[in-house]
Specification:
The chain is of the alpha/beta class. The chain contains 14 helices and ten strands. It is 45% helix and 13% strand. The strands form two sheets. Strands 3-4-6-5-7-8-9-10 form an eight-stranded mixed β-sheet, sandwiched between helices. Strands 1-2 form a two-stranded parallel sheet.
Length: 371
């Protein structure tokens, strides 16, 4: 049986009464994972918390030792954004590509999916969104996609990227859409992967409500979320891939444990809590987008509704091409990365048979299911 889940920022009425909200790379399923975590003895939670702290220290040491590529740059007002810019080889065949990660993630998520496939072909800019990875949160404007889009536009200028193909996954789709509306001169084309970009009916997961509120939210994010999240992280992350298989090294290479840091967890909760209201107004502007656009989603995505988001977006952006891949879950950025790369090539001006690539992926994942 596939575990059912509904993305807490994109609940759809079909899922709302059956499931609890979950976030990319940090899901707590009410029926199994979260209940089991809450039933653990307090001493186990305390031990888990200290193990988490040890793991975080080891992760930080690894980061300092091996991340000479990552650079923190002031994008205005003393706010530092962390990014990795991979320069192209002499034989460039694509415009620059900007990658915007989803909720509860960092730049290492798209790097895991795309670096080995695209390095050398174009300038590749991977960015930690404000409040994620090693980027500063900045002001309250960075709770909303508009503020984050402005910060990323400023980063592009400082990194020498005049304009780029923008590739976004999940929550990152809202920032990509805001970037295209607010800074159209920065965007060559758009590739949306399982985007979360429209308002939805229903609320968000209770633990995001708990983390987002003043005062007690900081306590919840510091004392409760890390140990419980640590216990749930593997099963939770696997659920974002479902029905497709999660790579064994994904949690390590994508540095998923970063999402459990108290400040990151709380900022993510505040983003999630604010997105629905933002999308009610901002989504009216999507029809202004006039660049080549490809939207990729999966019919088995139980985290972000393809009907509420991807299909609606394809109607609003003139000329957008929509691909709904059979038996594809939420992690289209990894499972369908060959199709995503073909989409990058297409919006970059190359002739590519996207339909053939989609069929190839459908054949490859047709038998995927959680076991």
């Amino acid at each position: 049986m596939r575990p059912k889940a509904a993305f807490n920022i994109c609940l759809n009425s079909r899922f709302r009464n059956e499931t609890v909200g979950v976030s990319q790379t940090y899901l707590l399923q009410r029926s199994t994972i979260f209940r089991e975590a809450m039933n653990v003895r307090p001493i186990a939670l305390i031990a888990g918390f200290w193990l988490f702290l040890l793991g975080a220290l080891l992760s930080a040491a690894r980061s300092m030792a091996g991340d000479e590529e990552a650079v923190r740059i002031d994008v205005g007002g003393g706010v530092m954004l962390n990014s990795v810019l991979l320069r192209p080889h002499k034989t460039v065949d694509l415009p620059p590509v900007l990658f915007i990660h989803g909720a509860s993630a960092s730049l290492y998520d798209p790097m895991y999916s795309f670096r080995d496939k695209l390095e050398g072909r174009a300038a590749l800019l991977f960015v930690d969104r404000p409040g994620h990875g090693d980027s500063d949160v900045g002001g309250p404007e960075n709770i909303l996609p508009d503020g984050q889009a402005d910060a990323i536009a400023s980063l592009m200028e400082r990194r020498g990227i005049r304009k780029a193909i923008v590739v976004s996954h999940s929550f990152g789709g809202a920032i990509a859409a805001a970037l295209a509306v607010r800074h159209p001169d920065r965007v060559v084309g758009l590739v949306f992967l399982s985007p979360a970009v429209y308002p939805w009916k229903g609320g968000i997961a209770w633990y995001y409500d708990a983390a987002a509120v003043p005062v007690t939210g900081a306590l919840f994010s510091s004392l409760i979320a890390p140990p419980i999240g640590l216990l749930a992280i593997r099963s939770a992350t696997s659920a974002t891939f479902s029905p497709n298989r999660m790579p064994q090294d994904y949690i390590r290479e994508a540095r998923t444990l970063q999402v459990l840091r108290p400040g990151t967890f709380r900022h993510n909760a505040q983003e999630v809590a604010a997105l629905n209201g933002w999308a009610r107004t901002a989504s009216r502007g999507y029809r202004k987008i006039r660049v080549p656009t490809v939207i990729i989603t999966g019919d088995a995505d139980s985290i972000v509704s393809p009907v509420v988001h991807a299909r609606h977006l394809a109607r609003d952006i003139r000329g957008a091409r929509l691909f709904v891949v059979r038996n594809l879950g939420h992690k289209s950025d990894y499972v369908a990365r060959d199709l995503a790369i073909a989409a990058i090539e297409s919006v970059g001006g190359r002739r590519v048979d996207l339909n053939a690539e989609a069929r190839t992926i459908e054949l490859r994942i047709a038998a995927d299911d959680e076991r």
